[in-house]
Amino acid sequence: MERDDFVDAFYRFLFPKLTKAYLLRLGVLVVVTVGFFGVVCRPCVIDGASMRPTYPAHGFVFCWRPAFWFGRKPKRGQVVMARYAGRNVMLLKRVVALEGDTVEFQNGVLLVNGKEPEGAWAHATECDWNLPQRTVEPGNVYLIGDNRSMPIEDHIFGQMSVKRLEGVPTW
Amino acid sequence: MKNVKNIVLLLVVLIAGVWGVWFFLGRGEEAKIRQRFLDAVGIVNKQAEEKNHTLAAKTLQFGYLFGDQVTVNIHHFPYNGTNDISEFTSLVFRGRAMCQSIDLSILGLEIEINGDSAIARCQARAKVSAMGTVYDEKHHFHASLQKVGRKWIFLSFEDDDVIKK
């Protein structure tokens, strides 16, 4: 390719002719992009240390919403994103118990149905929390962050309706 | 190919139409409540050098946002309790006077409307500079609102129980 041809092609790439076909392609691209990133896979900024060390205190992640479409239910141990205040503020937490399960903390040890759950997330950080036993109500899950090094009062956790679960992080 | 083009164009026009109808008709009361929050934030916000006439105007406007009685029950908030609007205004502006600057912003708002009453879940960020110290905190609470005439007024602010320990 001659240099002039290359410059012409580059110029056409930057400033294309506004033909019908081009506008149609552009329209479809906009609709698909807005639909995908607005409904299916929403970009989110992480701002908070409650899921350290699994997720950094400041980071970026996508919320994959189809994870709970078509009646799919959350699983124990799954990291989820839950609607907290509108669509713009979500909690990034781990599901530790499902409806009907009992949850408690004894000297920093998480007990679900009286047993310590399997998996590194169950004791990702040292803690000294004590929480009396409670049963997760129907239609709810119990969410806790992996970082339990702060006092129990400063950590946002607890039972939340399954309807508020928005999706799962993509990584 | 022409058929496909027509279908795609029709879809785009349909989606734009549905969005337009929702934008102009469907969001009426919700938009008013959002505006109420923005009004409240605008009044509470404070720049380092506030003029007296600005303070006077804000004090006057503040009273129109609330009902006769205001209940506040938020963890760590210094003015919890039920007060009539004049006491509440006095308390808030006394607290405001102790700060050099206040920068409140609404991060998220989720509104449920039931007839003439509404609950708004709110996540707000407060950057406050007071006595040489800068505080930057996020608070989550819910506000109860009542529709009086065409306006929504705040009745209470309480800790939200969307996630219960």
The number of distinct β-strands of chain A equals 10
Order of helices and strands of chain A: HHEEEEEEEEEE
| Low-confidence blocks of residues of chain B | none
Q: What's the number of helices of chain A?
A: 2
* CATH homologous superfamily title of chain A: Umud Fragment, subunit A
Taking the sheet with the most strands of chain A, its summary is: 7 strands, antiparallel
Name of the top-level CATH class of chain B: Alpha Beta
Mean pLDDT, all residues of chain B: 89
Q: Specify the overall morphology of chain A.
A: elongated
The protein's oligomeric status is heterodimer
Strand order of the largest sheet of chain B: 2-1-6-5-4-3
Give the overall shape of chain B. elongated
Our estimate of the beta-strand percent of chain A is: 25-35%
What sequence of helices (H) and strands (E) makes up the elements of chain B? HHHEEHEEEE
Largest interface: A-B, 22 and 19 residues
Distance between the termini of chain A: 42 Å
Any overview of this molecule?
By secondary structure, chain A is α+β, with helices and mostly antiparallel strands. Chain A has one domain: Umud Fragment, subunit A (Ribbon). Chain A is built from two helices and ten strands; from the N terminus they run H-H-E-E-E-E-E-E-E-E-E-E. Chain A has a seven-stranded antiparallel sheet with strand order 1-2-10-3-4-8-9. Chain A has a three-stranded antiparallel sheet with strand order 6-5-7, with no helix packed on it. In chain A, strand 5 and strand 6 (109-112) form a beta hairpin. Chain B has 165 residues and is of the alpha+beta class. Chain B has a single domain (28-159), classed as Nuclear Transport Factor 2, Chain: A (Roll). Helix content of chain B is 41%, strand content 39%. Chain B has helices at 2-26, 28-44, 52-63, 85-97; strands at 66-73, 81-84, 101-114, 117-130, 133-148, 151-159. A six-stranded mixed sheet of chain B has the order 2-1-6-5-4-3. In chain B, a hairpin with a 2-residue loop joins strand 4 and strand 5. The radius of gyration of chain B is 20 Å and the shape is elongated. The interface between A and B is medium-sized, with 22 and 19 residues.
